[in-house]
Structure formats: C-alpha cells, structure tokens
Amino acid sequence: MANGKITPKSILNFNKPPKVDEVESENEITIDNLLERVSSDNVSDALKNLYSTDGLIKGVKPVNPKHKVAGFVKTAETNSYDWGTGIKAIYTCDEDEILVIKCSNNDYAMWGGLASCAAQKHGLQAVVLVGSSRDTNDILELDFPVFSQEIQSRAGLPLNEGDIGEKLLVENLVIKTGDFIIGDVDGVVVVPKEKLDEVIIELNKLKKFEETITKKLIEDNLQMDEIIGF
Questions:
Q1: pLDDT above 50: residue 3
Q2: Per-residue pLDDT, 205
Q3: Distances (CA, A) of 191 to 9, 38, 54, 88
Q4: What does the pLDDT look like over 45-57, one tens digit per residue?
Q5: Which of 29, 78, 96, 219 is disulfide-compatible with 85, CB 3.0–4.6 A?
Q6: Which DSSP string do the residues of 124-184 spell out, in sequence order?
Q7: Rg over CA atoms, the chain
C-alpha cells in the first residue's frame, strides 16, 4: 500500500494468507460466529477472490427477508410435482442442518406450511429450494426460514421418486451434502466443505479491508475512487 493509498495492486494481493498478527483474535471471524459477522455478499466475494467463482444459487431468496441462516447442507433432488421426496429428506437431516432441494422444473410448488412445520419440529435450521414454495402466510407465522426461487399456489403429490444425499448440479454450481451455505436477504451462497477454512481466512481479510476503506471515507474524508486508486 503506497503512501497510505489502497491501490489496484494491493487489491489483487489482498487474497494472500494473512500473517498471524493481521487479525486480532477478538475480532476474528470463525465458523461459530460467521452468521453474525458476515453476509452472503462477503462470502461470495471471498469465493471470487480465491477461486474466481461466486457460489450463488441464482434466483433464490428468503420468503421472510429478515431470515438469515448459515450451516451445513443435506441435499435432495426431484421434480416439482413430487413433494414427497422433500418430506422424506427432512427425516434424514441432522439437527441444525439446511436442506437443499433441487427441482428439475418449477411447474409446481413442492414445499409449504406443513413441510415447514415438520422440518421445524425435526430441528432443521432452514430449507433452500431450487424451485417453488407456497403457503407463505403459514411459513411466516411459523417463523421457519424458507428460501425459494418462486412462490405459487398449486402443488403435486407425495410421490417420493427423488434422490436424497446425492450431488446436485445447479447450472454450473455443484452442491454436495456436507457443504456450507449462507443465506440472507441478498441471496444464498454455497461453500464447498473442503474450501471452508480458506474462505474463512479470506473473510477475515475482506472485513479488515472494508474497515480500512470505511475509515478513509469517514475519518480521512477521502473519495472512494482515490482510496481504491482507479
């Protein structure tokens, strides 16, 4: 960083592992406090810096925009006419897991109020649907976090014809049981389990970087283009 300025070079070098003393322990982001300390945006930025990917499940947003979740994934996959696979998948989940269900189409809602009640009772933290939900008022009343691409009224049948625990491919994004997910008002981002430690290191650096920029904006009265150097 030349003359106290954040330059393009310093931004490019910002994803190198920090020295031990770069992050003060009391402010350190860990797996235990990640939910309170970072957003889906931060996690997506960390993935971009490290791996040139963003981890975003496109189009998925919370039914209740106040909900924010972070945890480990159990996967399921079926078509939207089959809501039975989602019910079966609930009871394969460990407590506090996040169930991610990919639907092959969005023709029907495959999750609603009763499914949310069952998931909440079983101890799931949330459900993420690459598909549609319904019973919005019931879900809001339960205060159970549901993330979906669309909301619509019609549903199919409990066919139970899908797969549970298998690898999902959502466009170019691979999602596996055991991966880590964070979801909030801006979207849902997936971190492969084998990359989680590196992403947490990068998150600590990003937060420190943002704090530096904020300080220069507010306390030093600098313009943002001056600070970043473009």
A1: no
A2: 97
A3: 26, 14, 9, 25
A4: 999 999 999 999 9
A5: 78
A6: --EEEEESEE--HHHHHHHT--EEESEE-S-B-B----SEES--EEETTEEE-TT-EEEEE
A7: 20
Rounded Cα gap, residues 197 and 175, in angstroms: 17
* CATH superfamily, domain at 61-194: Ribonuclease E inhibitor RraA/RraA-like (3.50.30.40)
How is residue 37 written in tokens? 């300390």
pTM of the model: 0.88
Sequence spans of domains, the chain: 2-39+199-228, 61-194
The DSSP bridge partners found for residue 184 are: 187
Q: What's the CA dihedral at 217, 222, 226, 227 to 10 degrees?
A: -40
Residues 113 and 138: beta-carbon distance below 8 Å? yes
- Alpha helices, DSSP H only, in 20-109? 34-37, 40-51, 84-90
- Residue 83 is encoded by which pair of tokens? 């809501």
Q: What is the C-alpha to C-alpha distance for residues 93 and 24, in angstroms, rounded to an integer? A: 36
Residue 89 pLDDT greater than 70, yes or no:
yes
